[in-house]
Amino acid sequence: GENVEQHPSTLSVQEGDSAVIKCTYSDSASNYFPWYKQELGKRPQLIIDIRSNVGEKKDQRIAVTLNKTAKHFSLHITETQPEDSAVYFCAASKGSNYQLIWGAGTKLIIKP
Amino acid sequence: DVKVTQSSRYLVKRTGEKVFLECVQDMDHENMFWYRQDPGLGLRLIYFSYDVKMKEKGDIPEGYSVSREKKERFSLILESASTNQTSMYLCASSSRAGSSTDTQYFGPGTRLTVL
Questions:
Q1: CB contact under 8 A, A43 and B58
Q2: Residue range B89-115, pLDDT digits in tens
């Protein structure tokens, strides 16, 4: 069935450095790719999304890139700060119905 | 601001008990979802609903049922709780019926422990 693979499962970076999280999807009909951030003890919240007609989208220090041919998309965080520490989930729309297919999550640790 | 609330933050039940988890959203959203969150497995969809009295199975519906009698309320029912249903349960809602591309707004979660 359709799935989304997310790597790495844990990422530790020095404060101020960049972080990159990668996801690969299998459903060629997927056309919407959101990223959610879940801080410890809190609910997931959408931080950025991209649709299949766009290759890159930026919002301040975060950006998402999409390669439809290779079926992968990535989240880039520049100049990381302590408040970026969280679990990040990628997802892809399911071509056949209303669902999102979720990645397993990446725990991002920002070292001071 | 969209507000999604869940009836309990923490719940402890015994094996075999019937368990009700309730979710309420206040933004007139059409879609509502129930997820289960376990470490290393991400968010797994149990059931979703795109209209009152309508429901669709997600990826892991076994052992669960749902009820949506009113638009703002979506209930998850564990008919006979088992220890392997110990987990964090997250409810979510999104605005347009049948759309997978709208932002999902999550509730705070219910951590259920089944003894």
A1: no
A2: 999 999 888 788 889 999 999 999 999
